[in-house]
Amino acid sequence: MAPTLSKMLPLGTEIKHFELLDPISGSKKSLKKLQSDVTTVIMFICNHCPFVKHVNKELVRLGQDYIHEGVSFIAINSNNIEAYPEDAPDKMIETAQALGYPFPYLFDETQEVAKVYNAVCTPDFFIFNEKGKLVYRGQLDGSRPYNVIPTTGKDIRGALDAILKGRNVPHTQIPSIGCNIKWKP
Questions:
Q1: Which of 30, 67, 105, 151 could form a disulfide with 19 if both were Cys (CB 3.0 to 4.6 A apart)?
Q2: pLDDT tens series, the chain, 185 aa
Q3: β pairing state of 39-44 and 124-129
């Protein structure tokens, strides 16, 4: 799996609504019900990617640290499960429960949501403000499975802290890097 950089959707892009399967509840969840009036973090992740495995504990910490501040986190798996059965909904349930995800982990079976958000890698992060405008897209932090930088969530935390303090999120943002989304043929 060659590392893939995120495409950096233009800042100011409006949040795109969706309704996806929540494998844990077995029901569909809509962005309208999950979106926060403070800020919403949408992250494209999966079960098998070593980049996601590397940051999973920090994703849980982020949720635990910011959900009580009114931040909504939504994780989405858009991978082709026929080619990567370890990313199937039953395995998503196992991963979410084993790691204690404090946020919904939704399945984008048609891959349309990933396409609408121009997500190309896992993990790929998008933060929308209270008006539904994109204010951050990029990396969690500088940590990678192949370097010795600690996983702290520094970049996402910086963006969330700025929003919560009523400040502008810095426009200098570094692309995320990870495994490419496994597209259907």
A1: 30
A2: 578 889 989 999 999 999 999 999 999 999 999 999 999 999 999 999 999 999 999 999 999 999 999 999 999 999 999 999 999 999 999 999 999 999 999 999 999 999 999 999 999 999 999 999 999 999 999 999 999 899 999 999 999 999 999 999 988 899 999 999 999 99
A3: antiparallel
Q: Supply 73's token pair.
A: 């986190």
- Rounded Cα–Cα distance for residues 178 and 169 (Å): 23
Q: How many CB atoms lie within 10 A of CB 101?
A: 19
The pairs formed by 126-129 with CB atoms below 8 angstroms and a separation of 24 or more are: 126/9, 126/41, 126/42, 126/43, 127/39, 127/40, 127/41, 127/42, 127/156, 127/159, 127/160, 127/163, 127/169, 128/15, 128/35, 128/39, 128/40, 128/41, 128/42, 129/39, 129/163
Angle between helices 50-66 and 154-164 (to 10 degrees): 30
CA distances for 52 relative to 48, 129, 150, 185, angstroms: 8, 24, 14, 23
Q: Residue 153 in contact with residue 58, Cβ under 8 Å?
A: yes
pTM above 0.85, yes or no: yes
d(CA 118, CA 115): 5
